[in-house]
Amino acid sequence: MKKNLLFFGILTATAITGLTACKSNTGPALPAEEVIKDSAKTGTVTNLNLLMTNIPAPTDIAKELAKEGIQYNKGILNSPDKGSSYSGTYQQAVNMGIFGADMGYAASYNQMQDATAYIVQVAKLASALGITSAYDQKLMDQFKTAVSNKDSIGVVIQTAFDRAQKELYSNKRAATSTIIFSGGWIEGLYIATNLIKDEKNDKNSGMYEKIWSHVYAFSYLQKALTDYQSNPDCANMLKALQPLFDAASKLSDAGLSLKDVQALQQTVTEIRSKLI
């Protein structure tokens, strides 16, 4: 599978997103005139596409963790039981992205029962946000039928991804999409930094590289949020993420250490705790 799973919830709930585990890095393209005429600014589209391209796929992260013998850890994820407690566009959008990232992580470990629980919540939040066409009953039934086949799940997820992207772009919801993306980026970094415990070595160097790629993408998200800071939700998210953006801007690939990862983990955990 490709990158869509992790960003599926991000985009599936957003206008551009996706847990990128079942789609290519460049993402499904929409006609330029359709995107520009009534939705995201062209610069925002570019930044969010670059964000998707740079964030490591959950399958890649799972492979790196497996090298160290690190198993699936359901306990670090946001409980799907909390889905019904989210109200308002801000909470619903950011947690749609968070649940999407959690779904991608679960699916990358073949934990399809958990992945199904998350897609159900993503669909409910999508409905609350008015993104109804992406998750009709037929598609949900297809997902439940395909849970034992990763390739089939990839097709179903890609279908929802494409539908959500088109609907969000064409209904002037670029700001909402950016919030969803923010939730997915936060959760992906939270998961990765909570699972690495040792200094960089031959076994885990790949994981350090994945974390760096994820952190490096912060500038694209920052630019996208800045584009829509006149929107109260985007302004709130920009303010909430500023400590993490500040920390990320001081890091470099060559110098990323366990201490750096632990500092990132502490910062992202504090931010996430206020969002879930």
Give the gist of this structure.
This protein has 276 residues and is mainly alpha-helical. It has helices at 4-12, 32-38, 42-54, 58-67, 88-108, 112-128, 137-145, 150-170, 174-195, 205-216, 218-227, 232-249, 258-273.
**Helix count, DSSP H or I runs of 4 or more residues:** 13
Shape verdict: globular
Order of helices and strands: HHHHHHHHHHHHH
Low-confidence stretches: 1-38
Mean pLDDT: 75
Q: Please give the number of β-strands.
A: 0
Beta-strand content estimate: under 5%
Major sheet description: none
Could you tell me how far the N terminus lies from the C terminus, measured between alpha carbons in angstroms?
28 Å
Structural class: mainly alpha
Which descriptors would you attach to this protein?
disordered N terminus, mainly alpha
Write the layout of secondary structure elements.
Blueprint: H1 4-12, H2 32-38, H3 42-54, H4 58-67, H5 88-108, H6 112-128, H7 137-145, H8 150-170, H9 174-195, H10 205-216, H11 218-227, H12 232-249, H13 258-273
What does this structure look like?
The structure is a single chain. Helix content is 67%, strand content 0%. With 276 residues, the protein is mainly α. The chain has one domain (4-273). α5 (88-108) crosses α9 and α9 (174-195) runs antiparallel to α11. The longest helix has 22 residues, at 174-195. The two termini are 28 Å apart. Mean pLDDT is 75; it is low at 1-38.
